[in-house]
Design goal:
Two copies of one chain form a homodimer. With 187 residues, the first copy, chain A, is mostly helical. The first copy, chain A, has seven helices and two strands; from the N terminus they run αααββαααα. Chain A has helices at residues 5-16, 21-29, 40-52, 73-83, 94-97, 107-133, 142-175, and strands at 56-62, 66-71. At the A-B interface, α1, α4, α5, α6 and α7 of A face α1, α4, α5, α6 and α7 of B. Chain A binds a DNA duplex (28 and 28 nucleotides) through α2 and α3.
DNA sequence: CGGGCCATGTAATTTGTTACATGATTCC
DNA sequence: GGAATCATGTAACAAATTACATGGCCCG
């Protein structure tokens, strides 16, 4: 059972409208960055393979060697079939991995870490809220994008609230009895 | 700038207590599965490399060729240094990637997808709540684990609420005027 | 004595990151 | 004319997944 999400993400974006590899790279670095980042060095090879398999097709050329791709009927069927498959729920979150190891820090260090994280999430929330406030697109896929954006907003708000709560927990533990920075074993 | 989170995740778990590769694999498949899944085929090679670099050490052997590893002072310094570095906020979420492409489905199909997702998240929430209700550990790292668990509970609750809201949005759009399943282009 | 789980590894393949490499247009 | 951005690719390397491979211990 293969994942190959990038392949389908590209297909999905091309289902919305024809794009160049460069356009795709900007989208993967923009609105899709939080769910599926991808760099141009990954994108160009998958465009080549998708075109090879007849799932997309180069529809036009532009100024600086620009190649505009569009999805084919076969490609559309392919992504629709993928959407009907069982999603993979595994995901990796390097920032949250650290939370498990926060006990290895001094309390004030852990609190500073959480404060830094809160700042990052507040910036992201602002970005998402600006997106939601912006003029609504008339594209067909706009409503799905709006659902995703709403999730992003709730997610960031949730983290910010949890973060404040977590800092409070650490502060009260550190103030209370029996809080000791970790220091196991001999060498 | 390298990530190599697995290396630090292993180090962090061994800072808590000595473990075997098998123990680690079970933890990566259990409590860490939601933030950093890893399989045994990844774990054994990193154990070998960490031991090679003097960051961990095999402290004992057991019955079935069991090898128990413990962290060294150098390893403890290494993970603490890592905790002070800037975290990477990129993450991949294959289930949420699909939300961006929900517009390619018929409304009832999209709603069924979301219902399935809701079921998965309700099960995970139950699992987390059971973990929180369980007897508190007296391990040093227990409080950090508790913070992570609390985040997990809030996260799952947030998704479940968003999911119901999203289904409602789709239902009201489909009921209302101008909702058309997507179907671009000629072949 | 058999099935399930404990236990450890390696190999092949795919996916993702970082670095390398090049060149055209546009705007100031 | 110089900087920023548009634009496309390849190569080397690291990380992750899947499959292959083996065997011991324990419980019923």
């Amino acid at each position: 059972m293969r994942i190959m999400s990038l392949r389908y993400a590209v297909l999905g974006l091309l289902a919305d409208r024809p794009r160049t590899g460069y356009d795709l790279a900007r989208t993967f670095d923009g609105s899709l960055a939080h769910v599926w980042p991808a760099s141009h060095s990954q994108i160009y090879p998958v465009l080549a393979r998708l075109a090879d398999g007849g799932l997309i097709r180069q529809s036009a050329s532009g100024p600086r060697g620009k190649r505009i791709y569009e999805i084919t009927r076969a490609g559309l069927e392919e992504i629709r079939a993928w959407l009907r498959t069982e999603p993979d729920h595994g995901s990796r979150n390097p920032a949250f991995l650290r939370v498990f190891f926060l006990w290895l820090m001094e309390p004030d260090e852990a609190i500073r870490f959480l404060e830094d994280e809160a700042r990052v999430h507040e910036a992201t929330l602002l970005e998402f809220e600006a997106g939601a406030a912006g003029s609504p697109s008339d594209r067909e896929g706009a409503w799905a994008f709006r659902l995703a954006l709403e999730w992003g907003i709730r997610y960031e708000r949730g983290i910010i609230e949890w973060n404040a709560w977590a800092r409070d927990q650490i502060a009260s533990m550190a103030g209370g009895a029996g809080f000791e920075p970790a220091s196991p074993l001999r060498d």
